[in-house]
Sequence to fold (421 residues):
Amino acid sequence: MNTPLDRRTFLGHSALAGAALAATPVFAQTSGTGSKKVKVGLIGCGGRGNEAINDFTKACQILGLEVEVTAVGDFFKDKAVATGKRLGLAEDKCFDGADNYHKVLATDCQYVLNATPPAFRPIQFAAAIEAGKHCFIEKPVAVDPVGARSVIATGEKAAAKGLAVVTGTQRRHQSSYLRNKAAIDAGAIGAIKGGVVQWNGTVPWIKRRVEGESNASYLAKNWLNFNETSGDHIVEQHIHNLDVAVWFLDRLPVTAIGFGGRARRETGNMFDFFSVDYDFGDDVHIHSQCRQLSGTYGRVGEMFIGTEGSCYGGGKLNGKQVAVPDFKMDSDNGQVQEHVDMIRSVMAGKPLNHAKRIAEVTMVAIMGRISAYTGQLIRWTDLMSNEKSPYYNMACTPAAADFEKGEVPLPEEKPPVPGKA
Fold:
């Protein structure tokens, strides 16, 4: 459920002399080899977490670096131990429980990879920056307005400390998308006047509750199917396509009005589909469409119509011939390249900081979800600046901090129903 919280206040920060003054050394010498070693910790040992540590390792290989995993953490002990075993870690470096991230951050890792469920990311990101770690955070970075704004504030602290923050929006690290973005900026299709972004697929997985299982365990296990832990699939998955829209248009939407519904989903409390009209101002509208429903037509991608042509995300572009840079990447895999870009930025003393960018795009997705759940037009200002708005302090419960206290209440396993008959 969504409940209002008091407005959070955040500690101010003091600027450092330069971005190169990171809180921890970038490298440690490996004994006897003269090569450079990078120390990393992993929080979240599900499928995405295991892929993230693999991607980070490949990035280090590209850069001629060795990797030492200092610790891994997960809510569930068996997942932490299985990942640790695969990585050659001793079991005492495989932490579990809702507070596992504190133990990972207490090690001497320089980088931390966060692939926990989205609801846990704001508080864990804040702890990682407090501990002086360079951060890779999976997208989205929050599930509610309060969490998204907190990530922006934490990102400012990261900048003051000279810490890198890179997120899992791999399309921004792929040459095909970078070329098309550069072409659009150079006028290849004229001014973008509208478009559609889509993620139409199936439910990735569901987990059933077992007899005697706690609410906290069930929610952590089946997080993908609850709004409170995932943000719903418009936030957790469709954020990729919404990110491209914000990136290519180079601005944020003014309002969102949408609808959605549920007929087939078997667990949790989320919608099967969303249809949202995002108004970006100046008569520019983007139609956001996403669906998780088996046995239906699937399509994932983005299309934009300009005054002088059209563009399909990282694909075909019809328009004027313009000169664009040759985007030569270190890897054809954007999920590897984003780690290369993060590590290289730290090596150069110019750490990337994508916290505000990803928090804003996360808020765009949340904006669409709130509109569909309530049936109301939602303004960007309702979530970012208008403290009198009923949506400004909206927060999902149970929150991440509640899991660290013990048992949590279980949200109803039924979706919101807006309006009246």
